[in-house]
Amino acid sequence: MKKEQKADWLLTCCIVILVVIGVLMVYSASSIWASYRFNDHFYFAKRQLLFATVGLAAMQGVSRIPYHSWRRYAKPILLSCFILLAMVLIPGVGLVRGGARSWIGIGAFSIQPAEFIKLALLIFLADVISDRQKLITHFFKGFAPLLLLVMFCFGLIMLQPDLGTGVVLVAACLTLLFAAGAQIKHFVFLAFIGISGFAGLIISAPYRIDRITAFINPWEDPLGNGFQIIQSLYAIGPGGLFGNGFGQSLQKYFYLPEPHNDFIFAIIAEELGFIGATGVLIIFSLLLWRGVRIALGAPDKFGALLAIGIVAMISLQVAINISVVIGLIPVTGITLPFLSYGGSSLTLTLASMGIVLNISRHCYY
Amino acid sequence: MKHVSHVTIRKRIVAVFLLAIAVFMVMAIRLMIVQFILGDKLTDQAETSWSRDIRFEAKRGKIVDRNGEVLVDNVSAPTVMFVPRQVDDKEVVAEAIATILEVDQDLITEQLNKNISIVRFPEGRKLNEDQALAIQQLGFSGVYLAEDSKRYYPNDRMLAHVLGFSGIDNQGLVGLELAHNEEISGVSGKLSFYSDAKGRRLPGLSDTYQEPVDGKDLKLTIDYAVQSIIERELDIAEATYQPDGAWAIAVNPNTGAILGMSSRPNFHPDDYQSVNSEIYNRNLPIWSTYEPGSTFKIITLAAALEEQLIDLEKDMYYDTGVIEVGGAKLHCWKRGGHGSQTYLEVVQNSCNPGFVSLGQALGKDLMFDYVDAFGFGEKSGVDLAGESTGIIFNRDRVGPVELATTAFGQGVSVTPIQQVMAVSAAVNGGYLYQPYIVDSYLDPISMETIEETAPEVKRQVISEQTSEEVRLALESVVAKGTGRGAYVEGYRVGGKTGTAQKVGTNGRYLENNHIVSFIGFAPADQPEIVVYLAVDNPKNTVQFGGVVAAPIVGNIIEDSLSALGVAKRDDGLEKEYQWPNQPLVEVPDLIGLTQQEMVSYLTQLSIEAVGEGTFVIEQAPAPGEKVPMGDTIRLLFGEKVNDGS
């Protein structure tokens, strides 16, 4: 292995800019809620600042850890994540927030195991595939068992239930398998299974179909399922080209539920306008480009697959979150990486970017 | 198992990248659509969701008579409403407001605890000025006063059926208030403030106030003086005769403008909820249909004159008291008949067989052509809701009997407004006008006329010359014939009596239950006013139009013309006092006769009746006594004949 070089500076810049925008926008979006709930405008902003600091430190730390060392711990990490994920489902241990039993921990120090297992699974898959490269083209010896593992994991997450995280996990893993060279015909076969599975999910939880019809015509049920989409569009539409200006959102006055969370992009579009919103999109695109570049330049298959897996995970989450906010797809309940309020997701995202940054230190361009 | 080359992995990664960039592009395009194409629409909708409106009601337009006299006015009646999230101390506010509104404090507390942005409640509406002032002086935050008004009727029940009334939301419900609701209701204004989703004011955004636009005033053709006179006369008639109903219309025959219109039973628009809806929904002068009786003879007369079938002075008719038509015997109202008369006398005497002869001379087609031309069987088109059409014989089914009865006003069913317009046409030179009651809309501030109704001639029915002959004939009815009660010294009054039989629920004519009417106009050479009055089933009197209705119409015409500024003259026909040089007449034995049977004695003697019933049971002076012609005989009616034997 060649001597370490400097981490990718543009990727680092994108991350830091996104985190800074995140802290500022969480402040703006949450101040009204914070003052109403906790009598402190800065309640969420202060915590987000703390998470950002911890997360950036974690990123810096992780970027110093040679990414190959993760291969050694891939199995124990995955196993402990499975245990945590199972524990979440036990009432009394797992904490219910927003209708899903997704959290574990005590009070303020609670985490979402689903966030951890996404990363753990990507490391594991990259490790196994790069070890036994030829297996991946074989359906029963390679593709199917790995897929079963992913689906098992997805099943556990769906028991919480947390469709958004589950979808991101499956899609990121599939992207990794695709990049690793799995056969196209296997994916076609998978598509059939996927469609039937999707139908099954809808039948098992009818509220999901309501979300889909609400998406098709949110105005049919403006106070029910269409509510979030409508309120989100009421923020984005009036934003126009330049927006109302920082801090000038009207929708954050209790119209948009928890504006600092899943719908923070709507507040960005309202306050900073089309310019601000596309600016954020461009930064995410730059981040994607640098990530892909690192994956292409990675010195080995493990590095390449891990980098593309992590970048895919983050980009998918961005795409799904923003598509929901702008009314392209039904509401799924997923945070916007780097920007949405939340400790677990922010620190995990930054830590995984630390891994990518470390890979970039070893790249051949 | 194939080996996966490094190249494959690179290709796949690039493919993933390109796909991801494409997805990002789609999102950017969608963002453009939402912000630029849907932006305005979404902004409007969002504004609506952010702003909370406190409505300020517009004042309804006033309704005024043709001279600007106010018939319906407004008084301030504000509404108090709460924005609960802005109220600081709900207990204090509830106690103070409850005291002012004189309601239970719990009721106000309940309103203040409602989880909605703006609370309106019935007890907080239509406050008086003192209450509003008191609430204003409290200065509580979250308590708002919005301007509103309610109707005020300075003349109480006057013109109630025509005016109608409006409901608590200032919406027209009945009458002109309903028909012209859109024009007179105006556009409400509002005070808007931006609010968060919990109803609290958003800081830093100013309130906007949009002033209400008051409704247009409605100017009627009604003349306050004429209307007052009609109301007064109907009140007197109601008190004197306790009728089942009574109604009157006065129009200007030269335009079709309605000068006055009223009916009994009446109601107070403020208190409409306490009366039966039939009373306020039925504007009798345009709603009721019934056999017109002799007033309809004017149509037959005009038709016969227009067709030059008779010379009123020269042609003679001999009335035996009965005329046989198609095998049926039609009687004159006077037993024994009127004997030999000129056709002018036929009109003066309202002789039924004489008019039958005119109908026969006209023939079926001409007779009914004129009935149609005078506007019967179709709505007059008056700008009031609830008008009836009436029923005219289907021409295919008209035989000799139907033709004959139509000629003297039986068997057809018409409305009062149709009669008024037809007679107006007969006396105004032959022009059938469309009646109207709304003169114009007025701007409530500048009082400028916005939209004016122009008089509308439907058609000319008879010639000017025929019309003049009709006027003279009808003037002589009042001066010399059955309409003497309507004679007014100094105004040349023309007119015609009517006594219409009513059809009961069994399809047969009712006994002793008539609609007695009179239609009059003046001055006879150049009519300025046509007045129709009908009294339904008057009690304690002889049910005869000349007795009950004619004097009332005389009063209405005299006072109205005076109020309208028409000067008295002395060139009219002299009232023919009942043959002063003639010998005394012997008082007939009327005991045991029914009301209808004794009507024939009325040309020689006046009758004053008391009591109710079918038969005369007592009379004074006694039969056989000699009295001057025109003297009054007092009769007592009862159900059973006081048979001395």
Layout of SSEs?
The complex is a heterodimer of chains A (365) and B (645).
Chain A (H helix, E strand, L loop, with lengths): L8 H30 L4 H22 L4 H20 L5 E4 L2 E7 L2 E3 L1 H19 L7 H20 L4 H18 L3 H21 L2 H10 L10 H13 L24 H34 L3 H25 L17 H19 L4
Antiparallel strand pairs in A: 1-2, 2-3
Chain B lengths: L5 H32 L1 H12 E6 L6 E2 L5 E7 L2 E4 L7 H12 L3 H8 L16 H10 L4 E4 L2 E4 L7 H4 L1 E2 L5 E3 H5 L1 H5 L3 E6 L13 E3 L6 E4 L3 H18 L3 E7 L6 E7 L12 H5 L2 H4 L9 H10 L9 E4 L2 E4 L2 E4 L7 E4 H7 L2 H22 L26 H8 L8 H12 L3 E4 L3 E5 L6 E4 L3 E5 L3 H17 L13 E10 L5 E14 L6 E8 L8 H19 L21 E2 L8 H4 L7 E5 L4 E6 L5 E2 L4 E7 L7
Parallel strand pairs in B: 2-11, 26-29
Antiparallel strand pairs in B: 1-9, 2-3, 3-6, 4-5, 7-8, 9-10, 11-19, 12-13, 12-24, 14-17, 15-16, 18-21, 19-20, 22-23, 23-24, 25-28, 27-29
InterPro entries (chain B): Beta-lactam/transpept, Beta-lactam/transpept-like, PASTA_dom, PBP_dimer, PBP_dimer_sf, PCN-bd_Tpept, SpoVD_pbp
Pfam family, one (chain B): PBP_dimer
Family (chain B): Belongs to the transpeptidase family.
Task: Give an overview of the whole structure.
The complex is a heterodimer of chains A (365) and B (645). In chain A, helix 1 packs antiparallel against helix 2 and helix 4 runs antiparallel to helix 11. In chain A, 69% of the residues lie in helices and 4% in strands. Chain A has a three-stranded antiparallel β-sheet. Chain A has one domain. With 645 residues, chain B is α+β, with helices and mostly antiparallel strands. Among the domains of chain B are: 32 residues; 340 residues, 3-Layer(aba) Sandwich (Beta-lactamase); 54 residues, Trypsin Inhibitor V, Chain A, CATH 3.30.10.20. Helix content of chain B is 33%, strand content 23%. In chain B, the strands form ten sheets. Chain B has a six-stranded mixed β-sheet with strand order 6-3-2-11-19-20, with no helix packed on it. Chain B is elongated. The N and C termini of chain B lie far apart (141 Å). About 1% of the residues of chain B have low confidence. At the A-B interface, helix 6, helix 9, helix 10 and helix 11 of A face helix 1 and helix 2 of B.
